[in-house]
Design goal:
It contains 17 helices and no strands. The chain has 354 residues and is mostly helical. The two termini are 23 Å apart.
Length: 354
């Protein structure tokens, strides 16, 4: 039985979110230059988030498409429910943080706010060519919001027989964009943060969700079982060619994460399944949005406080990492309990009436 035939919550996906956000925190808050030449935890964490997002969002949209096709819902109502629910989950915390930055941030912060407020920050820093302090990680939130602008319309209204080809085309656009960016000598930031560069990760998750709901799950099973060996084989073959790795390497990573998401959606057994379903891991996954939003802001706020009280630590050392991670999780927990979760409950009012 595949996840497509099971209703309800898939708890191990929260566990994956926890590992994704932990990888991003390690990348930004800990000095790991010695291993960055081998892999980038931040890149891996963000790409896992994108595969998860593509999978979950597309799954919801396909359910809405099923309702349209049998005549129990209208397109406008499905779109409205989707966008209202996304707004309730994403906007309150995001714009609260921007509002606080507007009041207490310096001039360098205020310069960034227009692009942040319009979810075009990734475009702004692509032109800038470097990552400013504090809000650099918000580029990925902008990529997701830009994805949400177009993708629901395609899933809901494109001919159903075209959904898989369209999704495969979207996946292929990512390495094509990176090849173009390489040939035109785009700066490293533009190469990475522009939305087309993430289409393979988002598209892999979307393809998994679409395939699971057609052909009795046969395509989903083939994808699930082939993604891991194909991904690792591709990474091994590309490792010796820098340009090919830059173009196709992230697509191979997305393949591996597609296998991981499919396995977690079905439910891993054994030790790995127990880890993903452990209460502390799942809780970190549940508050991962807040952790992601706050983690790079915490050093800018609390670093001067630690210095003032005489606590001088090696920058990006392990002790500093533990302190900032603890503060980040505490703030995210408070945000979840006092604001995000109560607002999140309002989404029930906009659930599928069926």
């Amino acid at each position: 039985m595949t996840f497509a035939t099971r209703a309800g919550f898939m708890p191990q996906l929260d566990g994956l979110r926890a590992f994704a956000v932990a990888a991003v925190m390690v990348h930004h808050l800990l000095d790991i230059e010695s291993v960055r030449h081998v892999f980038s935890p931040g890149l891996l964490g963000v790409r896992l988030f994108f595969v998860l997002s593509g999978f979950l969002i597309t799954g919801l949209l396909v359910e809405g498409r099923d309702a349209l096709d049998v005549g129990v819902a209208q397109g406008a109502s499905v779109l409205r429910r989707f966008y209202v629910r996304r707004t309730l989950r994403i906007f309150p915390l995001y714009y609260l943080v921007l509002g606080i930055a507007l009041v207490f941030g310096g001039e360098d912060t205020r310069v960034q706010l227009p692009s942040l407020a319009t979810y075009t920050y990734n475009l702004w820093i692509a032109g800038l060519g470097w990552f400013p302090a504090h809000f650099a990680h918000f580029w990925s939130l902008c990529v997701e919001e830009q994805f949400y602008l177009l993708w629901p319309w395609i899933v809901l209204f494109a001919p159903r027989r075209h959904l898989v080809p369209i999704t495969i085309l979207m996946i292929l656009l990512a390495p094509l964009y990176r090849a173009l960016a390489l040939s035109l000598e785009f700066n490293g930031v533009a190469f990475f943060v522009m939305t087309p560069s993430s289409f393979d990760a988002l598209g892999m998750g979307a393809l998994l969700a679409i395939a699971a709901r057609g052909n009795g799950g046969a395509i989903e099973r083939r994808l699930r079982y082939s993604a891991l060996p194909l991904g690792f084989a591709g990474m091994a073959l590309l490792a010796t060619d820098g340009n090919s790795d830059a173009i196709l390497g992230e697509t191979m990573v997305a393949l591996v994460f597609t296998w991981l998401v499919a396995g977690a959606a079905n439910g891993f057994g054994g030790l790995w399944g127990a880890v993903l379903q452990a209460a502390p891991i799942r809780y970190l996954g549940r508050i991962s949005y807040g952790v992601y939003v706050f983690h790079l802001l915490v050093p800018g706020v609390f670093g001067p406080i630690l210095t003032t009280i005489g606590l001088r630590l090696p920058p990006k050392g392990f002790v500093e990492f533990l302190i900032y991670s603890t503060i980040t999780i505490a703030i995210a927990s408070l945000s979840w309990a006092s604001m995000e979760n109560p607002i999140n409950r309002l989404k029930r009012r906009f659930a599928d009436p069926r």
